[in-house]
Design a protein that fits this description.
The protein is an alpha/beta fold. It has one domain: Rossmann fold, CATH 3.40.50. The protein is built from 9 helices and 12 strands. Helix 3 runs parallel beside helix 5. It starts with 20 loop residues before the first strand and ends with a helix.
């Protein structure tokens, strides 16, 4: 990640001492075909915090993101997003709420028939009240942030897997969301490309401090995020000192058998005596 990009004009909320929740799950349960997936789980994401969600396949990680968006309704419990109880909202109200949330889908989910410009601009075009000049400016700023402005006229088929994932991030941030949801942003990528994607996630976290939920199968991704920061002067991700903590809160949520068995920062995770967690992080 070489030259510094043009910065997006996005708000950077203060996170110091802030405990305002932007996502709250209260005793949320859901199951499919009589098989419980989430069993009365509770957690909260505070403003400016990034929380990485872990668990084996089928443990409900991606289900949490769908529940937060109101794409699924829980069997029981309550979910609040940006102060709204999504479990009680109409589809029309949910549509308005989703405008305030950016999503990086698993496998990017770009539209193959659209150029990169139209893919990134898609949600802005849906608004219908933004000028073409403003859309063009924001699309180029978002692509500049992920260092892919040169791809603006290309189709997804002309991009590598890592480039498609970076375009997906640009599409998620172009609306200047209050919350970002990442569904396995490094899934299926090689280690080098995965590091590039995580560096972008760290950059977004540290520059704009957007509250984020990140689902991942790769524990090393979240460990890198917890032990590194984005250096604006060099435009690179750099390691924190052995006892240092980043400016932005970074926490871990681990699921097992439908329950939350851990919710805390990297220091607490390393000190956990739980045998399953010890084996999981080893």
């Amino acid at each position: 990640m070489a030259a510094p990009p043009t910065p997006l004009e996005m708000p950077a909320p203060s996170v110091a001492g802030s405990a305002e929740p932007v996502i709250v799950f209260e005793e949320v349960s859901i199951g499919f075909e009589d098989k419980p997936v989430l069993d009365a789980i509770s957690f909260r994401l505070t403003r400016g915090e990034t929380k990485a969600i872990f668990g084996v396949a089928g443990s409900g990680k991606s289900t949490i993101l769908k529940l937060a968006l109101g794409l699924m309704k829980p069997d029981s419990g309550r979910i609040y997003v940006l102060g709204e109880e999504v479990t009680q909202m109409s589809e029309e109200a949910l549509f308005d709420l989703r405008r305030r949330v950016g999503i990086v889908f698993q496998e990017s989910a770009l539209f193959d028939s659209l150029r990169v410009r139209e893919n990134v601009a898609f949600r802005l075009l849906e608004e219908g009240n933004i000028s073409e000049d403003e859309i063009e400016r924001r699309v180029r700023e978002a692509l500049s942030f992920v260092e892919l402005e040169r791809t603006v006229n290309m189709f997804p088929s002309e991009l590598s897997g890592g480039m498609r994932r970076r375009v997906a991030i640009a599409r998620a941030i172009v609306t200047q969301p209050e919350i970002l949801l990442y569904d396995s942003p490094t899934g299926g990528l090689d280690p080098v490309t995965s590091t590039t994607i995580i560096a972008l996630v760290v950059k977004q976290r540290d520059v704009y401090k957007t509250s984020s939920l990140l689902v991942t199968h790769r524990l090393q991704d979240a460990f890198v995020m917890a032990t590194h920061y984005f250096d604006r002067e060099t435009n690179q991700m750099r390691a924190l000192g052995s006892r240092a903590h980043g400016e932005v809160p970074m926490t871990f949520l681990i699921l097992r058998n439908g329950k939350v068995i851990f919710d805390g920062d990297i220091d607490a995770l390393k000190l956990s005596k739980d045998e399953y967690i010890r084996e999981y992080i080893s």
